[in-house]
Structures are given as C-alpha cells and as structure tokens.
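Homework-ish question, so no full write-ups if that breaks the rules, but can someone show me the predicted structure for this set?
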Amino acid sequence: MTITVLGVNHRTAPLEVRERFAHGPGEIPGSLERVLAAGARGGVLLSTCNRTEFYLSDPDDAAPEAVWALLSERLGGARRASDYGYTQRDREAVRHLYRVSAGLDSMILGETQIQGQVRDAWELSKARAGPALHRLFQSALLVGARVRSETGLAAGAASAPSAAVAVAAKIFTRLAGRSALILGAGDIAELAATCLASEGVRVTLVANRTYERARAIAEELHARALALDEAWDHFAEADIVLCSTAAPHAVVTWDRVAPAVARRGGRPLCILDLGVPRDVDPAVAQLENVFLYDIDDLQAVAAQAAAQRRGDIPAAEHIVSEEVERFWAWYGGLAVVPVLKELRDQMERVRADELERALRRMHLSPEDRAQVEHFSHALLNKFLHQPTIALKEAAGAGRGYGLLEAIKRLFGLERRDDA
Amino acid sequence: MILVLHLIALGLYAVGTALVLAPYAGLRAAPRALTLALPLLGMGAHVIGLARLTPFVGVAPTLSMLALFMVLLQVASEGLFRAPAVGVFTGPLATGLVGLALLIGLAPEGAPSTRGPWSILHITVSVLGLAMLALAFIAAALYLLQFRELKARRFGQVFRLFPPLERLDQLNHLSLVLGFPTVTLGVLLGFGVQYAGGASVDAAQVVWGMLTWMVLGWAVGVRVVRPWVGRRAAFASIATFAAVLLVYLALKLTAPGTQRFL
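A: Not a homework solution, just the prediction itself:
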C-alpha cells in the first residue's frame, strides 16, 4: 500500500508551463481515468493556476509514467513534463498535501483560496479516489482549517489586491453595498476590483480613455462605462476609486476632483492608485476625508502581513507533522488488517495440511485426534499472538508500515501478492 | 464582603485589560469570547458589591460605579460594534478607578446618609451619562488616531488593531446621542432632589453645571443637526469632554462640597 503524489507547482515550473498543465473541471475525470487505467487503486487530480498534482493510491509502476506522458502531451514539442515535476511517496506525499491545504506551499504564504481548491479537487475526483485518498483529502481540509484557526498563517492581507481590500475595510464599516469607480483598464485594477466585488462592493462605473475597453470591462463587472473625462464628477458619489490607467502622468488631479469631493458632505473616499507611474496626484490626498494609497503602500501592507505569517510557519509545520503521524497511524492500521488475515490464513493452511499428514500416520482414537488437533490450534495461536500484537501496536504508533513489509517478505506474502 | 467582591472585580478587570493590551505588545490576541467573558464576570461581582454600597456616600462608591459603567460600555462596544480597541482606554481606566475606590475606602464615611431613592437614581443616571460621554471621547480619540495613521499611510498596530473609521464615528455618534439625554435626565433628577430638600447645592455649581450641559448640547447639536461627521465631530466630542473635566476640577478645587457625589 502506498500513496504517491506526482506534479508540478510554481516552484518547479514557470507560468508558461503551468498554464499548459492546468485542467478545467471538465477535463479532470478524463485525465484521471487515463492514469488509473495504467494501474492505481484510486486517484485525485488537484489542478490550480499554481499547481497540477496527481495523488494516487497503490500505483503500479506504469502509473507515474502515464502521468508524465499525459502532461508531456499537454506541454507539446519535445519537452518532458517530468523535467518540471516532483514525486513524493507515502508520509512525504501526505505531508505535501497537508502543507498545500494549509497554504504553506502556496505562492502567497497562507492564502485561503487553496483550501477551496483542494475541496473542489476532492469533490471532482471523489468517485475515483478510493478509501485511502478519500480519508486523506478529508483530513487535509481539516488540517488546513486547524492551521488557519490555531496560527496566524492566514492573518492579514498578503497580496496587493487583498491589501486593497484590507485598506478599504479600515475606512468603511462594511464593504458590502459600497460603490466603486474604476479608472483605467489595467489587469491589477481588474483583479483588485474582483477582490472588492467578492466582499460585496458594487463596481458601478468603469472609465477609460478608450471607451470600447471601458465597455468590455464594465460588461464583465455589470457596471456602466464612461469616457475618462466624464469620471471626475462621479468622485462625489463613489466610495472607492481604483485607478490603473496607462497614462504617463497623473490624471487624477486636485483641480479635477476637488469640486466633487467637496460635495461629499464629509463622507470618506478611498482612492487606490494601482498605476505605475502613479495616476493620482499626491496633492489629492490633502483633500479632507480622502485616503489615497498607491501600489507601494499596498505592497507594504502585503509585505507586513507576509512577514507576520512567516513567523507562524513553525507552529503550522508542527500541526502538519502531528496530523501526518495521525493519518499514518490510521493508514498503517488499514494495511495491517488484510495482511494479518492473509498471514493467519496461510498459517492455518500449513497447520491443517501438516496435521492431516501426521494423523494419517498415527492411527489415533477420535478422542486423541481431537486432542492433537486442539494442540495444533493452540500452538498456532501462541505463535501468531506476539506478531499480531506487535503489528497492531506498531500500526497504532504509526510504525506499522515497515513491520508490515518485513512480515510480507518473511512469510512470503509478497510473492503471493505479485503472483 | 464588599471588599472581596471589589477585589474580585479588580482582578478580573486587570486580567481582561491585559488580554486587550496583549496584541499591542506583539503577543497573540486572546479569543474574543474570553475578552468578553472576563469583564462580564467582573461586572457580576462588581454589581453585587456596589449594590451593598447604597446610598453611595462619599466619592469611592461613585468611582466604583463609574468603573462599572465604563466596563459595561466596553463590553457593549465590543459586542455590538466589534471595537475591542475601546478596551485599551476603558480597561486601564476602570481598573484604576476600582483600585482608587479601594484605596480611598469603600465603607460609608461618617454619619449615616439621609439620601433617598431619588437621590440614588440621580447619582446613578448622572454617572451613566458621564460614562457615555467618556465613551464618546474614547471613540473620538480612537478615530483621530486611526485617521492620522490612514492619512499618513502607516500600517502599524493602530491600523491593524483599531476598528474602521466609520465604525468609530458611529460609536461616537451613538454615545453622544444616548449620553446627552441621560446626562439631562441626571440633571433634572438633581434639580428635583434639590427642590425636594434632599440636597443643598451652591450657585456656582448650578451655573457651571448648566454651562457644561449647554456645551454638551452644542456637541450633540452639531452632530445631529448640521450634521458634522468624522474628524470635526471627533474634535467636538473631545472638546466637550475636556470642558466637563475642567469644570469638575475647577469646582472640586474652589468649592469642595460635601454633598456632591463626585
């Protein structure tokens, strides 16, 4: 019995490679089926923008080759997927998944999105997972939750878009229902807008120098498109302004927005300038109740959170190690039961054969035959008692796996497996 | 018994304050349930201890009552407004007030008091109003600190641990709006007690008390009628509370009356 993980992640493969490996939900069952057909008792495919990993239980030798072949096909050309990948087995595979679920292996340390992605992967692969991976993924979700509740690994906002949300949340009591205006069509502004929208902020207006581009983004966010010059007046109503234009100089100036800000009646306005070079004239921050943050500020917030999170790594790793041992004890126990049964069956066959052979030569009375038979049973039970206890105890302590392999080898159970 | 109950309250408030202050010292924040439970347990002991101090003769019982209301408002702020930072001020203040009351001596002084139930109600309502004004002041101070950090783009402990600006503004607004009628009721009860012959108050105290009440009315007026929000409203709250304290100190120094409960 083994658990193996094969895959690539943001540490081993560049984005250009990772995006080729990424599986949509519809592709997962097909790929998994193909790998399982090569020989594995169960499998789960975890695919996100930062990782694609196959978790296999009891894989045959052909299964890893099938994984790399499948990924190499997606890569195209003469490149081999295995050059970008890694393989972890048994305890290390379990540890790997637990670290992934806890956010310890994420690009942004402690990010919480991965927990949902692990859950989705399990849901999509559940029919093919098998009991060991079923238990492994369930426990991985619990480990993730435990790490996040018992340590500060998920505290704070550790990326610039999430820092934008964190900063806005320090100005407004509730973000839900606030209105946001987006100036420009930069990717990071779109990302930050998505983060804000996930907190319930309504993106009501999108303004851009090119009206068509503004309309395209506005449609995605169910907002209204504006030309850039029409935007200044709307500073009177918006609660949050996200700026990310491609302009080479500041477009949001005191002169343009001060009249609108004066009509706000003292309500705070949060301006998040994500453009490089900056889109907002720093003088705008002098306006009463205007809070202006540029990309450096947001990165400072993110870096601070990341530094705090790093301090919680040892505590998180400790929880992971504890849980790995707990899983491994269960898994060892799972493996012990069939092996013990097989060992007992084999010994019973030997006992019965030898007893039969001996009794044929001895010509005993029925009472004496019964006595000898009873003796053989008692002897077998005595012989098997200590190994059974030792194996169960070792499994309970998480050391059953090695002993199991030894027993299989000593009593020839492995050869029977192979046969 | 009174002393023991006050000591229990003092201990629980002190531990609760330490838990509130822990994150500011770089320690892990205590679970929210614990930061609420400790002051609540302390309040339980405190209420029983304070009830045995009626009719509140001397300054010590009033200080103790003020501490009780401060903790009550701290728990309410945390429970309703998710503003644990209020405890940064109220925690040490309440602990200090209970400690001071214990040092002064809680047992009734001198001859038995002739204070009736209306007089006790006047004291209770007035102290509650004062505690609300103190909460308005604390919310305003927290607002200005958070405002300064946000404007200056400093993302330290104040940014992380203080509530959002808007919530602090709402807390300040609510404390003033509820505090003003409470103080007014306290003043009216005081007049009633005086005219009923329950207490004699000198003219200076009445004049300055009325002036303070008018300043407080102005602060509430500009919040509700104009309406001022944010920084301006915070400054108005702080100015008002400062006026109340100044008038109290002036009266205490110039006319140390024996009939006053503070």
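Now go work out the reasoning yourself. Hint: The interface with chain A takes residues 28, 146, 150-151, 153, 155, 159-160, 162, 164-167, 170, 228-232 of chain B (CB under 8 Å).
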